[in-house]
Amino acid sequence: MSLFRCASLVFLSSALLAPLTSASAADDVRRSAALRDDDVCAAGDGACALNALQARSRPALTGDGQARGTDDAKGAGDADDGWVWPEDVALKQMMGTEFSLHEYGDVFNFASPIVNRQCPPFVAYLWPQISFWSQEILRRVEAFPDDAPAEGQAKLQHFARNAAYTSCVSYFDPRSGSDFSKHVTGHMQSVMDLPSTSLEMPDLPEYFSKLEGTQRMKLVAVDACMMWTQAMACDLGYIGRDLKGSKDTGGKVCWDKVPLPAYGMTILGANMYPDRPKLNESLTDEFDHTDYLACQEKPLLVEDIASWCPMAGHWPDGMWNASWGEPSPLGSQRRSDVLTCNKKIGNPSFSSLTAEMVHIADEGEDIDIMKPFRGYLINKTSMEQKMDEAMATPRSVTDESVKNMAEQVAQAVLKVAAKQALKTAMAR
Q1: CB atoms inside a 10 Å sphere around CB 377
Q2: What's the CA dihedral at 97, 101, 102, 108 to 10 degrees?
Q3: β-strands 270-271, 266-267: how paired?
Q4: Is 296 helix (H, G, I), strand (E, B) or coil?
Q5: Which is nearest to 325 in space by CA: 213, 421, 232?
Q6: pLDDT of the residue at 383
Q7: pLDDT per residue over 240-260, tens digit each?
Q8: Which of 83, 116, 261, 375 has the highest CB neighbour count under 10 A?
Q9: Which residues of 74-102 are buried (b: 16+ CB within 10 A; e: fewer)?
Q10: What angle do CA 36, 40, 41 make, to 5 degrees?
Q11: Spans of the chain, pLDDT less than 70
């Protein structure tokens, strides 16, 4: 496997992940994770709470607004109703193969729990986009007929794909103070004004097509985020609708009334927005978003996000050494609604990685909401070839490549150090 593919795996837990197939193995993983969390918390690491929330069984809010305990959730992920997508399906969604899993199972196991812990801060920071676009997808899915022909579903999926793109462009933020607030809000409003039966996605305002250089690059979305958004569109849509409640926004987007955070989003300790200050955790709680109450009736709580992040239990618990969130309880209305929604939209096959690691609005083939079309940012044929090569590369070859790269880096560092030492000696 090439380093190119490893990057994709790390992004989503192998995007934005050795299978553990038995229930006892999954329980062992949860117990060991809980022990690790206790050790970390004892060491004073404040981030441990998120991992503990995901790893342990605890009461959480269901989509029906009722507390769910361990007994209520027990077995919810084991029912044969299609809620949980088996490992071979998850692997296909990740563009993986049995060979790649066999060769790189340790990468899956190592990356998954680390990346999954970034889900709550990601959701909390970008909630205005996630909430808006998932609800726009949901209302179209609900209006979509059960017996629609394949071409009808293709149109629905095309809308959802473009919506996943706009949800994942981190700068496509409607909040006041963001770079593109006025234009983003205008586009959102045009989508919101369309009837639920409309599967057309309006083009972005002409303003965006005139962007160049670094400003144009702010329209880039990561493919792994889009895959996650598509997989979770139904769940996220209902969660967003629940939180909005009876809040009357007058038929307006509303999120432009919410101020942009004064800090950037921190993922794996790094600030994802170089043009915004890094979060000062001693002064600011990244999950304190009472400002969201301007557009929804109920608060977005970290405890609730962590209960379902990242996959609401659609992937088997314990798979790849990770928890994939709690499923909706058996027999609940929410479970039935999400299953119906996913069937209409075509999940899980609809949600999978592509050969393109990034997308932009004017690529014209996959995402096509900005004209004139300019094509993919990265050559698609070349990327597909790299993917194929990566999936067929033995571990020994990758290890050798990593070793050679490390040696080259070490040699370069030594050369720089030697030149600096010589320069210092000559200056004396």
Answers
A1: 16
A2: 170
A3: antiparallel
A4: coil
A5: 232
A6: 61
A7: 999 999 999 999 999 999 999
A8: 116
A9: eebbeeeeebbbebebbbbbbbbeeebbe
A10: 115
A11: 1-78, 380-392, 398, 402
Within 10 Å of residue 290's Cβ, how many Cβ atoms? Answer: 8
User: How far is the C-alpha of 85 from the C-alpha of 205, rounded, in Å?
Assistant: 38
Instruction: Locate 249 and state its tokens.
Output: 């926004």
Q: How far is CA 93 from CA 49, 85, 137, 166, 233, in A?
A: 29, 10, 20, 20, 15
Q: Which two tokens stand for residue 30?
A: 């949860």
Instruction: Please report the pLDDT score of residue 297 as a whole number.
Output: 98
Q: Which pLDDT does position 388 carry in this prediction?
A: 65
Identity (one letter) of the amino acid at 359? H
Q: What is the pLDDT of residue 69?
A: 33
Type and span of the H or E element at 285:
none
Helix axes 127-143, 150-168, angle to 10 degrees: 170
End-to-end CA distance of the chain: 50
Rounded to whole angstroms, what are the CA distances from 191 to 45, 98, 203, 241? Answer: 43, 41, 10, 17
How is 367-402 classified by DSSP, letter by letter? ---SSS----SS-HHHHHHHHHHHHT--HHHHHHHH
Size of the chain in residues: 428
Q: How far apart are CA 83 and CA 327, in angstroms?
A: 8
- Closest by alpha carbon to 122, among 48, 49, 228? 228
